[in-house]
Write a structure and sequence with these properties.
Keywords: Phosphoprotein. Residues 466-720 form the EAL domain. The chain has 25 helices and 29 strands. The longest helix has 39 residues, at 130-168. Helix 5 runs parallel beside helix 9, helix 16 (529-549) packs parallel to helix 18 (571-582) and helix 18 runs parallel beside helix 20. It has 725 residues and is an alpha/beta fold. An eight-stranded mixed beta barrel has the order 21-22-24-25-26-27-28-29, surrounded by four helices. The chain starts with 14 loop residues before the first strand and ends in a 7-residue tail after the last helix.
């Protein structure tokens, strides 16, 4: 920051000294002894209190008492020390210096008291002649001045950090300016009236734009329109010098921005600003420089994130946010407009001509629909139009391409497909609205070039059904409609029950069981699977705890996990906390993931699986054989068990030919050091075939269907070797 040519102007204020003594003669002699005394270039201002209570009342209304001349013995022998305890404790006056005086030397405080209460000096009243009193006060005031300046500076620096931290998080310069006007009081220590002006490169006084100020300045758009001549003069002086101008009751400072731009803040107070040096004020301004530059950078990044630079339009991300804002408020129409054969036009005329065509197309759409509609670019040659409606008398989008577009020297005729969807608001998700418009656009494209189609009623009905299902499910946990069923798993060689799998069940408000394959995809798409999955995990662990307490201590609990759970938040922490709350060892929990997730997961998901394995839980791949498997990827996964899908178990007939795929799966699992469990075992023949293939464990209707916990306990008691009832 450039050095300021302006100096500091500070009013000379007196040092405040409080005399506390129950003897009026002491007050008179002290006043007489200190008449016309100056210390460090400033006069003294004496305040008087004649009791402990009166002294505390004075200190509560006086903010800057430098020294207290305090009688030790007043109403009681400890009155003076009691006052000091209040001063340092309840009143929190740490910088005020204390000189004890007494006419009874026998009541002198000991060393521990002097240290504990930070007492500057102790004198008998007979010692305090004018010369000795001056020396004692000079020492005490010098100490107070240093302490007070330190506290003021710490307050200023802390206020600077707090203010600039808040300002750095604001979205743009307009918010930054308003935040600065509202928060400048914090570091300065006094209420101020402030104006903030934006200064462009090479600005003249008329170019300074008012960004924020007091209510009376709201009508002024620029410096030239400001009625406050003093403020206008200070602002232009600061803009020209790019420095700091400090006076007793005011401040003008330059805040630098990238690109030779800047802000000027002019602040004025009704009483003197805290005693802050020019160097500290430069610290404030440098921090404001950094905060303002951060805001400008954030604003620029937001522009890149939400706007298309070629067309100067909002992009797909901005459209989704606009949909999220509008959908709950009112119905709307969303249209997607896509130029037919745009890739061929680019190939024929070149990318520059293609860019010009897009710009001309967007300009024509804007001219047709007006500024009230929300227009965005959502694809290479696709625009989205969000409007409150397209009434019969409104713009006809089919008219867009009736006239050719001028691209360079050539007129270019094009057609465009248009897909429209009526949005009814409510709980519809922005992505769903855009998907429906995309389906309508696909139908329009299927009709041929220049086709127009609305979202089909069947699609709309399906979407509404999904939303109704989603809304009904959202209330399921509070209505206790959710439950778990448990299906046993057994060791094929011995027949021993080794585990159970927890399966989510939902009985809706009408009492109807909703099939899992119907509601689980819906809650996954809406993100509700994360909260629901945690409920399943905790409920399953509580059920296992019940089983262990009843005597089945060797069972493991299998819980299915969605990819959204692994991606959302701290899933490892969720599992860790659920185990800690249940008190169960991690080894009894097995998390099941689908094969498609296992072989196509990202590195982050692989890290999550390793972290889960680090907790001690076991991992299983569900529906093994149904995905597009990469054995090299499976080999890197920390998986303990693979579960052969029921579709392969169903084909087992005991002959070698039909068993080859299952045999291959068992062999792969064992070669990867994993145990193998077959799902969907329904017949003894299937169980025998799996045993012959070396399959380790089984699960299916042959032994038991999924059942509630109470039924599971009764079933376990009925098994050979189960604990007694």
């Amino acid at each position: 920051m450039p050095e300021s040519d302006a100096g500091e102007v500070r009013a000379v204020s007196p040092w405040t000294v409080l005399v506390v003594d129950d003897d009026p003669e002491v007050h008179e002699s002290t006043t007489f002894a200190l008449r016309d005394v100056e210390i460090l270039g400033r006069p003294l201002r004496l305040l008087h209190a004649y009791s402990a209570a009166e002294s505390l009342a004075v200190l509560q209304r006086e903010s800057q008492v430098a020294v207290i001349l305090l009688d030790v013995v007043m109403e009681t022998v400890s009155a003076g020390l009691d006052v000091i305890e209040e001063i340092r404790g309840r009143l929190g006056l740490q910088d005020t210096r204390i000189i004890l005086r007494t006419g009874q030397p026998g009541f002198a405080p000991d060393e521990r008291t002097v240290a504990a209460y930070d007492i500057n000096d102790y004198r008998t009243k007979s010692e305090l002649t004018r010369a000795k009193l001056f020396v004692a006060l000079f020492t005490a005031i010098r100490a107070y001045d240093q302490l007070h300046q330190g506290l003021t500076q710490r307050h200023f620096l802390q206020g600077t950090l707090d203010l600039t931290s808040r300002l750095s998080s604001l979205p743009d310069l307009a918010h930054f300016a308003r935040g600065l006007v509202a928060g400048l009081e914090q570091p300065l220590g006094v209420p101020v009236q402030a104006h903030v002006f934006e200064v462009p490169p090479g600005a003249l006084p008329a170019d300074l734009r008012l960004l924020a100020g007091p209510p009376e300045a709201a009508a002024a758009a620029t410096l030239a329109g400001l009625s406050d001549a003093w403020c206008a003069a200070r602002a232009w002086q600061c803009a020209a010098s790019r420095g700091i101008c400090m006076e007793t009751n005011s401040l003008a400072a330059w805040i630098g921005l990238p690109g030779e731009r800047g802000l000027v803040v002019v602040a004025r107070a009704q009483k003197p600003v805290a005693n802050v040096s020019l160097q500290l004020m430069e610290v404030l301004c440098r921090n404001l420089d950094l905060s303002a530059s951060t805001v400008v950078l954030s604003e620029h990044l937001r522009l890149l994130a939400y706007f298309d630079p070629l067309l100067g339009l909002p992009n797909r991300t901005a459209l989704l946010e606009e949909l999220a804002r509008r959908l709950p408020e009112r119905p709307a129409v969303l249209a997607l407009l896509d130029i037919d054969g745009f890739a061929g036009i680019n190939d024929m005329f070149g990318d520059d001509c293609g860019d010009q065509l897009l710009q001309a197309f967007a300009a024509r759409v804007r001219a047709l629909v007006g500024d009230e509609a929300f227009l965005a670019r959502t694809g290479s040659d696709q625009l989205a139009l969000l409007t409150d409606g397209l009434p019969a008398g409104g713009p006809d989008l089919c008219e867009l391409c009736r006239e050719p577009f001028q691209v360079g020297q050539e007129p270019v005729r094009i057609t465009a497909g248009i897909g429209l969807v009526q949005l009814f608001g409510g709980t519809m998700l922005p992505a769903q609205a855009l998907q429906q418009a995309s389906l309508a656009l696909k139908r329009a494209k299927d009709q041929g070039r220049g086709g127009t189609a609305w979202f089909d009623a069947d699609y709309e009905a399906n979407a509404r059904a999904r939303m109704q299902l989603l809304q009904a499910f959202a209330d399921a946990p509070t209505r206790e409609q959710l439950s778990l069923a448990f299906q046993p798993q057994w060791d094929i060689a011995s027949g021993r029950i080794c585990g159970v799998e927890a399966l989510l069940r939902w009985r809706d408000a009408s009492g109807t069981m909703v099939p899992p394959d119907r509601f689980i995809p819906v809650i996954e798409s809406a993100g509700l699977i994360v909260e629901t999955g945690e409920w399943v995990l905790r409920t399953a662990l509580q059920a296992l705890l019940t089983l262990r307490e009843a005597g089945w201590a060797d069972l493991r609990m299998g819980v299915n996990v969605s990819v959204l759970q692994l991606q959302a938040g701290d899933f490892v922490g969720t599992v860790r906390q659920a185990l800690a709350d249940s008190g169960l060892p991690a080894q009894v929990l097995e998390l099941e993931i689908t094969e498609s997730l296992a072989v196509t997961g990202e590195a982050q998901l692989l890290d999550t699986l390793h972290a889960l394995k680090g907790l001690g839980v076991s991992l299983a791949i569900d529906d093994f054989g149904t995905g597009y498997s990469s054995l090299s990827y499976l080999d890197r996964m920390p998986v303990d068990r693979v579960k052969i899908d029921r579709s392969f178990t169903r084909g087992l007939r005991g002959d070698g030919r039909s068993n080859r795929i299952a045999e291959l799966m068992v062999s792969i699992g064992h070669h990867l050091d994993m145990r193998v469990l077959a799902e969907g075992i329904e017949t003894p023949e299937q169980a025998q075939a799996l045993a012959a293939l070396g399959c380790d464990e089984g699960q299916g209707y042959l032994r038991a269907r999924p059942m509630p916990l109470v039924e599971l306990q009764a079933w376990l008691r009925a098994q050979a070797g189960g604990p007694a009832a």
